[in-house]
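Supplementary Note 3. Input sequence used for the single-chain structure prediction.
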Amino acid sequence: MLRSIDSLHDYHIRARDGNIGYVDDVLFDGEEWKVRYLVVDTNRWLPGRKVLVIPDVLEEPSAEGRLLPVDLTRDQVENSPDIGMEKPVSRQKEIDLFEYYGWSPYWGGGHGGFTEPVMRDVDPDQQEMSGVTPPGDPHLRSGREVEGYSVNASDGHIGYVDDLIADDTDWIVRYLVVDTRKWLPGRKVIVSSEWAGRIDWQDRTVAVELAREEVENSPPYDPKQPVNREYETRLYDYYGRPFYWR
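The predicted structure, written as discrete structure tokens, is reproduced below.
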């Protein structure tokens, strides 16, 4: 099922033996457009602390009561490594977390599934702007942070990122919701992450491989209605793009 990331904020996270907090944010990979973590604010249980939960331990969400069960215990969460969410998450912190829980790391390889931290070629100015310093993944970003980024079509500005829509089966971000504001007042549109180019973290922009006229005439999108396969088919047919579900 496709879910708005905004709609997940404040969902309660319930461990096997009780609540642990609520969804405060997500961290996603801006290259693969995949949610890597849910950021859980432990609220009054562990005051001042936030913890990370990988989508693999999530069970079926319940809209009634806004509940996300997880296959963990409160004791496991309480004793998990302190990630220190006031700074970007380093690869070493991720390794500590995955080793503690015995999870398979998403970056793969190496003894026990782990590799040495990868030093990427990241522009120093970009590091200073984003707060990311190696070892770490410069593509791992907060969903809340990306909201408000400028979205540019091939021939000009079309609006700003208003939300992200992810598939809660594989937790891939399938769409960006774009608020067109002054260009198309009162209208929001969605574009597939497959049609988006590289996110420029320094300039706070997202490029999409579409023309403004295409976007303007795209099938109407109602943020109050869930994105279903019927709408997706219309959208992909309109843009003449191959379906991702085939």
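The longest strand covers residues 18-29. The chain has two domains: 2-140, 147-239.
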